[in-house]
Amino acid sequence: MRKVLVTGFEPFGGDRVNPSWEVVKKLQDVQLSGVSVAVRQLPCVYGKAIEALNQAIDETDPLMVICVGQAGGRVDFSIERVAINVDDARIPDNDGQQPIDAPIVKDGPAAYFAQLPVKALVNGLREAGIPASVSQTAGTYVCNHVMYGLLHRMTQSDCRVKKGGFIHVPYLPEQAALHPGTASMSAQTLLEALELTIAIALHTEHDLILAEGATH
């Protein structure tokens, strides 16, 4: 069966959980819209995160890759539009690295745009009653690092991924309880949003991705 790869991150910055992984791990081997979902946890570490993502792509040969990360302070399910070629860390990663103004790919393009139907996703999620928006920045931390790495990998001639992009999710309620006044979203709502995202992304553009992936 054709595969979709979905990734989440390990906890970072002192948090005990990361909502991206808490939700993504529930999709392991779930079948949605004619595909089987494979999941992987990525380290919140510059360099190693892209290495782990590329290994997961090699292992699963997916039609589509959706990477998910935590953005404490965000108020909705945020579909990222663009990744930029810079690592600039506000806090150290989980290996203690804190790059400043460093390129992700030397001599790579300044930016890549998500290969997902971002507007269709937002519209579909809102119609389902789930708060969602298009985000114009994935930041400069490990989330942006991974999004850029994914989209760069998709430009390579040996890569068979047809669609790919990144989603930021808010805190879970138990995290927001430690940050009064901060927005949150339940794990169940996040899971429903992610399942709907996969379905919409697979079936936009006249089912092109499923048709092209018929030989997978």
Could you give a quick summary of the protein structure above?
Its EC number is 3.4.19.3. The chain has 216 residues and is α/β, with parallel strands linked by helices.
Describe this structure in words.
This protein has about 220 residues and is of the alpha/beta class. It has 7 helices and 9 strands. The strands form 2 sheets. Strands 2-3-1-4-9-5-8 form a 7-stranded mixed β-sheet, with helices on both faces. A two-stranded antiparallel sheet has the order 6-7. The model is unreliable at about 205-210 (pLDDT under 50).
Based on secondary structure, the structural category is alpha/beta
Total beta-strand segments: 9
The helix fraction, in percent, is: 25-40%
Oligomeric nature of the chains? single chain
Distance between the termini: 7 Å
Largest β sheet strand count, sense and barrel closure: 7 strands, mixed
- Number of helical segments with 4 or more residues: 7
Strand-helix topology:
Elements: E1 3-9, H1 19-24, E2 31-32, E3 35-42, H2 48-60, E4 64-70, E5 77-80, E6 82-84, E7 111-113, H3 118-127, E8 132-135, H4 142-153, E9 163-169, H5 173-176, H6 187-203, H7 208-212
Parallel strand pairs: 1-3, 1-4, 4-9, 5-8
Antiparallel strand pairs: 2-3, 5-9, 6-7
Helix pairs in contact: 2-4, 3-6
Subunit structure: Homotetramer.
Main location: cytoplasm
Keywords: Cytoplasm, Hydrolase, Protease, Thiol protease
